[in-house]
Amino acid sequence: MNIYQSIKMAFKSIAGNKTRSFLTMLGIIIGVSSVITLVSVGQGTTSSITKQLQGLGTDLLTVNIMGRGATTSLSYEEVMELKEISGVKAVSPVISGNATVKKGTVNDTYAVEGITPAYEEVKNFHVQSGRYILDIDNEYRMKVAVIGSEVASDFFGINNPVGQTLQLNGVSFKIVGQLETIGTSATGSNDDKILIPISTAERFLQSRGIRSFTVQADSTELVSSTQERLKAWLDEKFMYADNAYSVFSAQEMMDTLNSTTQMLSLALGGIAGISLLVGGIGIMNIMLVSVSERTREIGVRKAIGAKKRDILLQFLIESTALSGFGGLIGVALGYGASALISSMSTLSTEVSMSIVAVSFSFSLFIGIVFGVIPANKAAKLRPIYALRTD
């Protein structure tokens, strides 16, 4: 008997017991769909967080100064010395605070940042109209401001805000530029802030010294070595005091995140894979029952010339077909569940073709492995014994 006849007989047997075949496949269906759904949620979440961290800049180091004793900040000149460190491309000091912003009868509280012109390059945050903060603004402590798109919308609607004035804590600031719309990153919204010259911010926000600044490395590959040199400089500056500063690296965070999520995805896939094993045991159980029910049929086939390998092949094809159909239905359900989760919740999902291929291949493998024992039992039946069975 050729393979085509074996396949035809296997499919005929499955079609003859539709309900039992479906219940047999149920374990495989649940297992494959669970693997695809859980891993897609894990990968989608990882991708979402990675994009937010990339928005912070993978070549950037953010430094926060806590200080030592009465020294809780660095001077502007000390921060600018960092540009001399090997691997440092640019340094952007920031003085942050909040201010009540008013125009006419509209007022609200917004974040205000005192910056230097380097902020534009380091943060990759450009203007859509007007100009940026210039060195001359810092030199003469000009009361000028660059506002985010949300601030512009709140106070000026669709009108151009450049050239207009806003009252910040009762002080008039002339708007010289409007920032492009960036959206929300891991540190919050970038569109509801107001940028002013750092020298103006020192007096306006009554904050002497620099407690936060961002260092841009020459490249992502140099972030680690630049971070070590930066820490050495800060250790010397604060005489190796504990907790005098913190250095945050988005690249370091991404590496840790990727490592953690890979482990999490493996764990989720492993847990879901247990369902596949249970489904395989179900297939073996039903196939053993099927061999017992069809003992006389096997005897007749052997009596008219069927060989041991023909019987073995028929039952192996039947078990593989059961797991294969279950795998296909599981793949479809996995895609559907992932799309449903993405549309009905805030979770992001990302179905990977490699996971689909692995889970479906594993379902076929389960069908072959757990079909061997029943198929072998059927193939070893002696024709005389089989024909005596009712």
UniProtKB/TrEMBL annotation:
Pfam families annotated for this entry? FtsX, MacB_PCD
The UniProt keyword set, sorted, is: Cell membrane, Membrane, Transmembrane, Transmembrane helix
Q: Which residues form the ABC3 transporter permease C-terminal domain?
A: 271-381
Q: Which residues cross the membrane?
A: 21-42, 263-290, 311-333, 353-373
Q: How does it sit in the membrane?
A: Multi-pass membrane protein
Q: Which family does it belong to?
A: Belongs to the ABC-4 integral membrane protein family.
Name by which UniProt lists this protein: Permease
| Lineage summary | Bacteria, Bacillati, Bacillota, Bacilli, Bacillales
